[in-house]
C-alpha cells in the first residue's frame, strides 16, 4: 500500500473535476444494488474506460462495456489518469476501467475486497477529489483489526502486491473541503473517488 499525498495539485484537481463533470453528462450517475437483496448502495457511480463496473440483483457484480441506463459505451478515461497509471502502477498494460464513485455527505462504503477482475496482479490506483474521508483498511480475511486513514483531495492510494486483496472501505465523509474552497463536483457529491483497474490479463 502506497499513499501519495497531494499528488494532484489544486489546478490539476480543478481540471480533473471539470473532466468528470463532462463524463457524467454523457454517462449519468446511477445506483448499483446489492446482489440477492437488491438493497441500493449509498454511493452513486458511473464509469469511464472500455469497461465499467456495476451490480444488480439478478446478475451481481460484474464489468460491462455499456452504461446500464443509456446503453452507450463508457467515455474514455482522462489522459491525466492514464499518465498517472503509467507513473504509479508498475503495470505494462493500461487500465480498462475507471470507477467514478460520487459520495454525498452521508454516503459510505462497507469493507470489501476488489475481486471481480481476472487480472489480480495489477494494482488498484485510487484518486480522491473533494471532501476528506475516513478510509479503513483491514486484512485478507473479513473481520479482525483495521487501520484508519484520512484521504484528502489530490491524494492517490495504490493497493498492489499483498495489499491488493486487503479489505477496505470508507467509514464516513469528514466535514472538510478541498482547496481552493469547494471543487465543482457532480450535483449532490461532496467527494469523488476515481479508481483505475485492469480487468483482464495483459
Tell me what the structure shows.
- The longest helix is centred in the first third of the chain and has 17 residues, at 10-26.
- The protein contains two helices and twelve strands; from the N terminus they run βαβββαββββββββ.
- The protein starts with a strand and ends in a 5-residue tail after the last strand.
- The strands form three sheets. A six-stranded antiparallel beta sheet has the order 1-10-7-12-5-2, with helices on one face. Strands 6-11-8-9 form a four-stranded antiparallel beta sheet, with no helix packed on it.
- It has helices spanning 10-26, 79-88, and strands at residues 2-4, 44-49, 52-56, 60-64, 97-103, 109-112, 124-130, 133-137, 147-151, 156-159, 168-173, 191-197.
- With 202 residues, the protein is of the alpha+beta class.
Taking pLDDT < 50 over at least 5 consecutive residues as the criterion, the unreliable ranges are none
Q: What best-fitting shape do the alpha-carbon axes yield?
A: globular
Would you tell me the structural class of the helices and strands?
A: alpha+beta
Biggest beta sheet attributes: 6 strands, antiparallel
* Pattern of helices and strands: EHEEEHEEEEEEEE
> What average pLDDT do the residues reach?
94
- Going across the biggest sheet, name each strand in turn: 1-10-7-12-5-2
Q: For the terminal residues, how far apart are their CA atoms? A: 22 Å
* Estimated helix fraction: 10-25%
Number of helices: 2
Fraction in beta strands: 25-35%
How many extended strands? Answer: 12
- Rg result: 16 Å
Amino acid at each position: 500500500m502506497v499513499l501519495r499525498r497531494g499528488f494532484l495539485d489544486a489546478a490539476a484537481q480543478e481540471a480533473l473535476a471539470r473532466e468528470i463533470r463532462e463524463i457524467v453528462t454523457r454517462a449519468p450517475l446511477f445506483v448499483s444494488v446489492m446482489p440477492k437483496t437488491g438493497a441500493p448502495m449509498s454511493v452513486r457511480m458511473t464509469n469511464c474506460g472500455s469497461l465499467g463496473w456495476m451490480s444488480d440483483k439478478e446478475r451481481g457484480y460484474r464489468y460491462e462495456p455499456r452504461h446500464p441506463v443509456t446503453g452507450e459505451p463508457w467515455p474514455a478515461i482522462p489522459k491525466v489518469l492514464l499518465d498517472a497509471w503509467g507513473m504509479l502502477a508498475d503495470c505494462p498494460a493500461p487500465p480498462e476501467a475507471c470507477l467514478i464513485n460520487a459520495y454525498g455527505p452521508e454516503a459510505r462504503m462497507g469493507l470489501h475486497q476488489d475481486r471481480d477482475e481476472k487480472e489480480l496482479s495489477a494494482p488498484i490506483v485510487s484518486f480522491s477529489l473533494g471532501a476528506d474521508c475516513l478510509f479503513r483498511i483491514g486484512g485478507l480475511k473479513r473481520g479482525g483489526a483495521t487501520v484508519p486513514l484520512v484521504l484528502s483531495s489530490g491524494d492517490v492510494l495504490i493497493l498492489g502486491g499483498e495489499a491488493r486483496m486487503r479489505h477496505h472501505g470508507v467509514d464516513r465523509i469528514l466535514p472538510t473541503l478541498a482547496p481552493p474552497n469547494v471543487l465543482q463536483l457532480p450535483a449532490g457529491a461532496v467527494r469523488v473517488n476515481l479508481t483505475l483497474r485492469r480487468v483482464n490479463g495483459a
